[in-house]
Specification:
The protein has helices spanning about 55, 60-75, 105-115, 120-135, 155-160, 225-230, 235-250, 260-270, 275-280, 285-295, 305-320, 325-335, 335-360, 365-375, 380-420, and strands at about 20-30, 30-40, 45-50, 85, 95-100, 105, 140, 150-155, 190-195, 205, 500-510, 515-520, 525-530, 535-540, 540-550, 555-560, 570, 580, 590-595, 600, 600-605, 615-620, 625-630, 635-640. The protein is an alpha+beta fold.
């Protein structure tokens, strides 16, 4: 529930308040309704959060509302909505008065723009983490960090001209410095602000027993596991909430999803979700790892506090040349489409610079991570493809050397022993042939997770890579990487001088559709393969490995011989069986499914012919039923105590 002006809802019967003229309704939630009102004494518009009439007489709700008011009133931070007033004891209405914000929620921004550029999302994250760090210092845990509770105020240039508002610093540790006589629009970032609102279910660390009844408060998809389980929470629960929020901002969907709240809660508790880099390769490895740490299953696995997470975000932003965080958010709000296009080109060049520097200092993992992210932005860039292919080839040779080194050592020792019996001791052994001892540093570290190709994106002009010379242009029909478009069979094209030829592989049909991923020689290449997908590889021999997301299928390999131009491939993977586990069966009862199979105590193996299967379970003789959804390769536990009566 947000105190945002400009989103007025239905008119109705407004509450009558002695000190405020209520003008319009802005929003409503489970506990209260928010109105725009005019402060009669100070002559300013404010937001008034009025508790619902049917809750007003509840002692527990009244206490919670009072605690909320006390909690938020002592918070003073530029990224937290300021509390002005609270209703007095004995007033007819119970309400909280806060500053009126003129903007839109982060939720509405995501609905309008989709996933945000990772650097913009991270800049917003630093702002919010500064607010949370301040709240935690005051003993307040928000417990419901989500896009609906974040408001982005964005003032256009015309409205900002002549304003005397004090700009808020970008760094969460910075203090607010007054700049008298400075117009708000005079420097980048001064026309935008990020506010955290609605501490409606915040818990004071010094107010014990607030949720001792085990009541779950918050939004399931954003709640930390310990919060779901009713345990005591601290600031690390908000770190988890920030991880969920930033994952959605960077990827475009939540990390934990389900068909109902119960499924979502279970997945949060299991701690299983797809990595951000896998879901959206342009996020890159570094941002993905920061999110993984924030989303740790236990508080101990996460960042120690909000400041630590903010510092991690700030360090990566600084590495990528982003210093004015508020300015970055403002530039995106001014022109989302134009900013995104400029940002991608700038980021590709920066990533290539950083990757080149990492290669020079011998940090192969960092180089691979930056080149992979750059390639995700520009999958058709021939220069990037050549560099990544070279890195992959070098890594393959290193892996081969590590595999054959022990065998080479054994053969060499055998040859030396044979030489002794032949009285060849006097012949010197070439020291260059003696293999390195185990543990000698003879190789740089492997390029773990190197990606050769990226999911389909709109074809873009290749961005020059600093320190390299781009090869001769390649005809687009020869460089389609998972583009989903057919190439022209009549086009005359060929490899650049000195380069290997390329081949385009097409898929005639794929089962199961849109969840099959393909790797080339063990390196992830394309995800979500369908019958319209194409894949470009060079003329060498390769092995394509097909597998399903979340290990739902049995993987299979397909060898592509050197120079072979295969016919369109048909990929049909066998789905793994699902397991239905029955626990605590009732005595003298039996269990059947609508498939006709008898369900026994323990594990029941269910063959799967499609991606998901809905099964109805029946308990006899009571007739109680339960409907469950099985997923290939997964185990689902059912307890007859959760079955419902027929028709219930």
């Amino acid at each position: 529930m947000s105190a945002v002006s400009g989103e007025a809802l239905r008119p109705g019967r407004f509450p009558v308040l002695a000190k405020y003229d209520v003008l319009e309704e802005l929003g409503h939630g489970g506990m209260a309704t928010v109105y725009r009102a005019h402060d009669k004494r100070l002559g300013r518009d404010v937001a008034v959060k009025v508790i619902h009439p049917h809750l007003r007489d509840s002692g527990e709700v009244a206490r919670r509302f009072s605690i909320e008011a006390q909690a938020v009133a002592k918070l003073r931070h530029p990224n937290i909505v300021e509390v002005y007033d609270v209703s007095a004891e004995g007033e007819g209405e119970q309400y909280l008065v806060v500053e009126l914000l003129r903007g839109r929620t982060l939720r509405k921004m995501l609905q309008a723009e989709g996933a945000l550029p990772p650097e913009v999302a991270a800049a917003i994250g630093v702002e919010l983490l500064g607010a949370l760090a301040h709240a935690h210092e005051q003993g307040v845990v928000h417990r419901d960090v989500k896009p609906e509770n974040v408001i982005i105020e964005h003032r256009d240039r015309d409205r900002a001209e002549g304003s005397s508002e004090t700009p808020v610093p970008s760094s969460p540790q910075a203090s607010v410095r007054a700049r008298s006589g400075t117009a708000a629009g005079s420097q980048p970032g001064s026309r935008v602000s990020v506010k955290l609102t609605d501490f409606g279910i915040a818990k004071l660390l010094d107010a014990q027993g607030m949720t001792s009844t085990g009541q779950v408060l918050g939004s399931p998809a954003h709640m930390a596991p310990e919060q779901i389980e009713g345990q005591d929470v601290d600031g690390r629960a908000d770190v988890f909430g920030m991880g969920v929020l930033l994952y959605e901002c960077m990827v475009g969907h939540l990390p934990f999803e389900g068909n109902n709240p119960a499924q979502v809660l279970r997945r949060v508790l299991d701690g299983v979700y797809p990595s951000a880099e896998r879901e959206r390769p342009t996020v890159g490895r570094v941002w993905s790892e920061i999110l993984d740490k924030a989303l740790g299953r236990t508080p101990e696995e996460r960042y120690a506090d909000a400041d630590a997470m903010g510092e991690a975000l700030h360090a990566e932003l600084k590495r990528l040349g982003v210093s004015n965080l508020r300015g970055e958010i403002e530039a995106f709000c001014d022109d989302p489409k134009g900013y995104t296009e400029r940002h991608e080109k700038k980021t590709i060049a920066l990533l290539c610079d950083r990757a080149l520097a990492a290669r020079k200092r011998g940090d192969a993992l960092a180089a691979a991570a930056d080149y992979n992210r750059a390639l995700a932005y520009a999958p058709h860039d021939p220069s990037l493809l050549r560099i990544v292919s070279t890195l992959h080839g070098a890594e393959a040779r290193r892996r081969m050397l590590r595999r054959v080194a022990p065998l080479a050592g054994t053969l060499l020792l055998g040859a030396l022993a044979f030489g002794v019996t032949r009285k060849l001791r006097s012949q010197p052994v070439d020291s260059d042939l003696v293999p390195a001892r185990s543990g000698d540093a003879v190789d740089p570290p492997p390029l773990v997770g190197l990606r050769l190709t990226a999911p389909a994106t709109q074809d873009k002009t290749a961005t020059p890579i600093p320190g390299t010379t781009a090869p001769a242009p390649v005809t687009p029909t020869r460089t389609q990487v998972a583009s989903g478009t057919a190439s022209d069979p009549g086009a005359k094209t060929g490899p650049a001088p000195g380069a290997k030829g390329t081949r385009t592989i097409r898929f005639s049909d794929v089962f199961p559709n849109n969840i099959v991923d393909v790797a080339v020689d063990g390196v992830p290449a394309v995800k979500s393969v369908s019958a319209s997908t194409t894949l470009s590889i060079d003329d060498d021999k390769h092995t394509l490995t097909f597998s399903c997301r979340n290990d739902m299928c049995k993987p299979t390999d397909r060898a592509i011989e050197a120079g072979q131009a295969p016919a369109p491939l048909s990929v049909r993977l066998d789905l793994r069986a699902a397991t239905l586990r029955l626990v605590n069966p009732k005595r003298n009862s039996s269990y059947e499914s609508d498939t006709g199979a008898t369900i026994v105590e323990g594990d029941n193996v269910i063959e799967m012919k499609s991606g998901k299967k809905t099964v109805t379970l029946v308990e006899l003789p009571s007739g109680n039923v339960d409907t469950v959804t099985l997923v290939p390769g997964k185990k689902l536990t059912v307890d007859p105590a959760e079955f419902r009566p027929p028709g219930g």
